[in-house]
Structure prediction request, 431 residues.
Amino acid sequence: MGDMHLLLDPAAAATADRPVAALDVHTLRARFPVLAQRINGAPLAYLDNAATTQTPLDVLAAMTAFEQHDRANIHRGVHTLSQRATDAFEGARATLKRFVGARQGHELVFTSGTTDALNLVAQGLSSIGVEPAFLRPGDQIIVSGLEHHANLVPWQQAARRCGATLTILRPDAQGQLHRDDLARLLTPRTRVFALTACANATGTRPAYEALLALAADAGALTVLDAAQAAAHGTPDIGTLACDLMAFSGHKMYGPMGTGALVGRRAALERLVPLRFGGDMVQWVSYDEASFAELPARLEGGTPNVAGAIGMAAAAVFIDQVGRAAIDEHVAGLRAHAAQALARIDGLTLLATESTESAIVSFVADGVHPHDIGTLLDERGIAVRTGHHCAQPLIEHLGRGPTTRASFALYNTHDEVERLAAGVADALRVLR
Prediction:
């Protein structure tokens, strides 16, 4: 993957009393060719990383090498290309398991993303006609009020399907979740607790470690949506009271259409497969079938082998750049943006206390965020506007749609200054 030591500033690395070496962002940016372009005549400032991060040359090279040299269907093939493809696919699985701290009792299932993984869990636990059923009429499913629609709507459908009750752990007026509130909701019939590691709409980082532990102690199966935490502040599932965790490749510098569901084997074995067909069966007759062992039983059909390889290459890239350095960098950008935007009259920031996030979300009095986003785009600044697939949370906070800027390892403090200046100018124009 090249001379990754070049990504660290030598002077910073030589400073003995500095615990984390600063990123050489300009050298890093050269690995992301998409960032070199100009938009509307201005250098691109890509600040929509909570939706999708850009992909480095390292990941593209790994995927291209597979397509050019090893492309074949995996498993059961006796020819050389099939065996090489199988080794690469299973090697990617092992890399990603290490990346999220999976232990011996864990397994990782490839999916098309976090949404696919969470649907696999919700539907797999609520299938009708399966005995013994995990979710039954009268059981309780608790979902936090911070969730992306992908960790809410599947549970709504699961509750309707099996007759369970869906309960929302509501945040306070500032968007924070509290342990005591969860304790009051837990009952002997609580079977599932689903929670995000970071609210994509606001940047709130709940104390998910304590909340998961509380729910697990009450006997609930715990599910963590780690989509917004895969690229920075990555959860270590081996140290969490977490049964199942979902994350996406495209939010961690990997390819789109890739993701994973990782969890305890006992929890994964409870899931009824969603895709029936090739590679997930042990034997088949005209009348019935027996399913393969994990992880194959949950991976029916030809997988996205190149995507899995690319996702694993992204995990390697993150580790070689340095997780601590990335975390410190994006937190510094977020703090800078919060301070700069807070100085603009008539602008309100959400989740001001979430210093560990890479997201800054705000509303402006009397101005629609789509208009702000359009004027920022004219300056080459890409942000996200709207409800961010978290409409219940935005409405709970009493806010309309918001403007959201989100940061990655290749963003700079100069881009933060451009964002603040662009927002201030946009508000002057629009008002």
User: Anything to note?
Assistant: The first helix runs from residue 10 to 13.
